[in-house]
Amino acid sequence: EDKVVQSPLSLVVHEGDTVTLNCSYEVTNFRSLLWYKQEKKAPTFLFMLTSSGIEKKSGRLSSILDKKELFSILNITATQTGDSAVYLCAVLRRTNAGKSTFGDGTTLTVKP
Amino acid sequence: DAEITQSPRHKITETGRQVTLACHQTWNHNNMFWYRQDLGHGLRLIHYSYGVQDTNKGEVSDGYSVSRSNTEDLPLTLESAASSQTSVYFCASSVTGLDTQYFGPGTRLTVL
Q1: Residue A7 forms contact with B (CB below 8 Å)
Q2: CA-based end-to-end distance of chain B
Q3: Exposed end of chain B (fewer CB within 10 Å): N or C?
Q4: In this complex, which of A32, A88, A98 lies closest to B31 when CB atoms are compared?
């Protein structure tokens, strides 16, 4: 059975801090790992990672995948209150394409 | 602009009633998905479709059904609603099964 574990479950930081969110996975026929941000509404796409060691970056957010150790990290630098959200990690298989498995999410709270 | 919509946004129903949640996308995506999200948890896949007349069961499909008669719509039916089906339901679509999924705004369903 596919498994995605995110840590920590919740995190409280102050504006300006840097945070690292973790996602480890066990999945048969791994294809991609995706990160989503969910505020009080639908998840929105952040990154898709397919290859090991290649950092994806968007502004203050960056993410990298380690396919040998089966994990990914999402970094947020210089956090702002608008970064407060639940961050979801999901994995896609090569087979049964589209049948993604999600972790339970990390709830990030950024205090002013 | 292309989009994905869900209706109703909120629904309260009684145990045993049949309920249908609508999902409509204008991106012409082949793949559509239904998830449920319970408090403090990630997303769990209910059903998915790779195209017209194609439907597949996800990890929590018991008590739910879908049909795909055209590209744009994937309605989700609860045959006989149960209190355990109280949840937030998200519809999503993607170009292929190996791409990021774009989510609708969600439907909050309460079964009394």
Answers
A1: no
A2: 37
A3: N
A4: A98
Contact B50 A105 (CB under 8 A): no
Q: CB contact, 8 Å: A106 with chain B?
A: no
Q: Tell me the pLDDT tens digit for each residue of B73-82.
A: 999 999 999 9
Long-range contacts at B84-89 (CB < 8 A, ≥ 24 apart): B84/B111, B85/B36, B85/B109, B85/B111, B86/B110, B86/B111, B87/B36, B87/B37, B87/B38, B88/B36, B88/B37, B88/B38, B89/B6, B89/B21, B89/B34, B89/B35, B89/B36, B89/B37, B89/B46
At B41 the pLDDT is: 75
Instruction: Give the type of residue at A8.
Output: P
Cα Rg, chain A, nearest whole Å? 14
The answer on pLDDT for A52 being more than 90 is: no
B95 CB within 8 Å of a chain A CB = no
Q: Supply the pLDDT for residue A29.
A: 85
Identify the band that residue A41 occupies on the pLDDT scale cut at 50, 70 and 90. confident
B44, with CB counted inside 10 A (0-12, 13-18, 19+), is middle
Q: Which residue has the tokens 């989510």?
A: B103
